[in-house]
Amino acid sequence: MILLIDSYDSFTNNLANLLEVNAGQKVVTIRNDSFEPETYEEFFHSYLPLFEYVVVGPGPGHPSIESDVGIISWLFRRYRDNPDLTAVPILGICLGFQSLCYEFGNEVSRLTQVKHGQVYEIHPISEDTILGDGTFKSVRYHSLYVENLNDSIIPLAHCYETDGKKILMAVKHKELPFYGVQYHPESICSSNGDCLISNFTNMANVYNQKFRPEALGINLTNLPKGLIEDHAISEKSLISDGLFADTTKKQDISLKKFQLGSGILPIDICEHLYKKNKRANFILLNSASIPGEWSIIGFPIDNETEVITHSLDEASAVKSSSYGSHESTKIELKDGQTPWKYISDKMATKFISRDRIKKTLGNYHSRNLPFFGGYLGLISYEEGQHILLDKLEPISSTPTPDLKLAFITRFMIYDHLTNDWFVVSIRENDAEWVESFSEEAAGIEKVDIDSIPFTVADLCEEADKVSIQYDFPSQSIYKDQFEKCQEYLHSGDSYELCLTTQLKISLPSYIQPWDIYKVLTLRKNPSPFSCFMEFDDCVLISSSPERFLSWKDDNEGKKLVELRPIKGTVRNTPDVDINAATEILKTPKEMGENLMIVDLIRHDLFEFAQDVQVSQLMSVEEYKTVFQLVSVIQGKNIKPGYSGIDVLHKSLPPGSMTGAPKKRSVELLQQIESMQSSGPRRGIYSGVVGYWSVTDDADWSVIIRSTFRYTNDKANKAGNDTWRIGAGGAITVLSDLEGEWEEMKIKLSSALQAFK
Ligand SMILES: C=C(O[C@@H]1C=C(C(=O)O)C=C[C@H]1O)C(=O)O
Ligand SMILES: NC(=O)CC[C@H](N)C(=O)O
């Protein structure tokens, strides 16, 4: 077994995988604070001897700061101060490498040119070939570096900055079996990581045979129960373990498939319903532009459809209400139960197997309908943040929803590839509704695009137009925030921070949200993941370009998870075509931003997928207002027991909205974003919206380039109608203040331009 000590990094699971594959051994991961200082000796005598070697992983912070490295510095010192002890072989990566050098008396200083997500040529010094023969390319993620080595540590490799300065990239201890590398062998863009691990494993093996033969004969089955597991990072218990095992439950299915003439789109169906009912009592996930494949319209039923709300302001309860009703039942969550468990338990009774659907529908172009009833709704950024930080605390005095899911039983699906429409109900005996609604749909006409105004201002009374107001984020505070980010990026606390801001727009009178949706998505910012949903306490209008996570069957009926982070942005103007944009985007700054999130997502996926692949690395995609760099990461061979809700729960908040490493960056952002008057709470912005289907499929997009409102806000400004827009971007050491401010403004304008 190998012991991996993690320092709350976002690349640790990538390293664990590299070790498992190339050392062929089980990897046990603990945190640098998994043992309390008073049990360090116990760790040393009872735990450490169980392992063939130790890998000390990367992480935020500085090796001299006790709270950043915990047991790591103690371990190196234990050997330094007792040179006669037989040591366990140790391989340090980045922070681990720096700790090794630091504890053996070397200086760790700040780089003048900080490198995060940058590919460099590594030049080994020839006499030790542990890194592999010859030069190779590897990724650097560091703010700190080791200089002026004393003679206890021997240099093994360097790289060169553009100004020719030599930076230390690998070392070994003069006598002890300790090695370290400054670069990241586990990154998707690194080569020779496999070689380092197999060479180190061989070295450790030879060493152990000679000095620690007992470490090679450990019989895992004879160890006292819990000895390993009690300290290892546990796979948090699954929310829905085994929920989908029972396929005998019979849920009624009524379904009709047809085509509608003259290019009828989801927007036309919704507009028809809106005019007929004088309200927008539908939930629309609309993919009417590339790369859309399906659109979904959910029809909540008044006084029947359950809507579940969770607010972090009242963290230990969920509210259950019926759609259209102002009354709700408060359900106290007891014994550590979470809203997620509550949702999942409800779903358990509704499962529909793909086999049953096939019986109803036949083999539909060998494709699966994405959604077959289930939850449609949104989850705030803070709901995800609280899962990550594992603490639930009230955060403000005016409650706003952090999780809002409606259980949908009647819906329509549009297949953009074939133009087929489906009307489906999974209510009992609902064939009649399916029949009559299908007939109604046949008579629906196209929206007259020319009748849709170009801005929300055009929807206001003439005299009111001038009084649409918004308070733009303060540029001088943004400057302070940017500088604070730079300070953390230079001190090694973060590698990338997604800094965001918000503004509030105050409308002089109430404008129907559905009318705003049409302006935004038809006139201003068409997008592949647009959505509309109106609840009693919040409304979301999104024109997001970014898929967060989809969870569906692959061709062999096994689950496949896919994430599609966007990172790297260039404004789309008439003088910038895709070639010019590619030239700007394929630079170290933009590619570094994207690479960091790709590596972070690989780490997140390894939590539940045994096979993680990057199927698209940094392609350039064009949107109406911007060009973006987009990557696709897939997880296959999912560990047993996981469902769509577990996968989402383990991956929030979206890494592209936090930066890396995720935990430290989230904590820092909370502090930095509180500097603006809009405060630290992002709310619905930068959360996720989508569905979890009764077939256990899911698809969630990131809530950006969108606008939302809380009903509460209205009460604050008498008579006015308040909408919010958030925007931001990744800050790295290569960012410049002006450029980031402009990028943030462009992103704000994606939704803001719809208003004025
Ligand atoms: C934060 C936003 O966008 C995020 C940041 C991006 C970037 O830094 O390049 C790109 C897409 C999103 O992941 C936003 O639109 O508000
Ligand atoms: N990736 C890392 O381990 C980084 C180590 C350290 N925090 C630095 O920035 O240099």
TrEMBL record:
Residue span(s) of domain Anthranilate synthase component I N-terminal: 266-422
Statement: the UniProt record of this protein carries the keyword Transferase: yes
Domain of life: Eukaryota
Catalysed reaction equations from the record: chorismate + L-glutamine = 4-amino-4-deoxychorismate + L-glutamate
Pfam families registered for this protein in UniProt: Anth_synt_I_N (PF04715), Chorismate_bind (PF00425), GATase (PF00117)
GO cellular component, one term: cytoplasm
Keyword Transferase: yes
Entry-linked InterPro entries: ADC_synthase (IPR005801), Anth_synth_I-like (IPR019999), Anth_synth_I_N (IPR006805), Chorismate_C (IPR015890), Class_I_gatase-like (IPR029062), GATASE (IPR017926), PabB_fungal (IPR010117), TrpG/PapA_dom (IPR006221)
Ranges of residues in domain Glutamine amidotransferase: 3-200
Domain Chorismate-utilising enzyme C-terminal: 475-747
Keyword terms of this UniProt record: Folate biosynthesis, Glutamine amidotransferase, Transferase
GO biological process, one term: tetrahydrofolate biosynthetic process
PROSITE patterns, sorted: GATASE_TYPE_1
GO MF annotations in UniProt: 4-amino-4-deoxychorismate synthase activity
Record-listed E.C. numbers: 2.6.1.85
Pathway: Cofactor biosynthesis; tetrahydrofolate biosynthesis; 4-aminobenzoate from chorismate: step 1/2
Database matches in NCBIfam families: PabB-fungal (TIGR01823), trpG_papA (TIGR00566)
PANTHER family reported in the protein's UniProt record: AMINOBENZOATE/ANTHRANILATE SYNTHASE, AMINODEOXYCHORISMATE SYNTHASE
Family, as annotated: In the C-terminal section; belongs to the anthranilate synthase component I family.
Descriptive protein name: aminodeoxychorismate synthase
